[in-house]
Amino acid sequence: MFGKSLERRLGEITRRIKEEKEELLIAEEQLSMLLNEADEARIRSLVSETAISDHERRDSARQAENMGNYCLKIKNEINRLENLQDKMLDKLTMEKNDGSSKSSYS
User: What is the pTM of this model?
Assistant: First the structure.
């Protein structure tokens, strides 16, 4: 009875997982770029030893850290959605098995 709505919800979750994975790819690419920039800023700060270069180093490191946290947030959401998807697939399988065993007794 709930099979169709469960299947619709499962489709929605599958779509969201795909979107989150695409977002993660973009975020990880940006993280890589920000980490490179932070490393370059760190080296410039060591070489020049000025307040401006130190500020740039801290700013670059902060941006990279924020993007790393964002990537982690996306990964956690993907894990949450995949766990929900697994539970829904189990439930859908149980419903289909219950329906087929009832019809075989009729």
Answer: 0.81
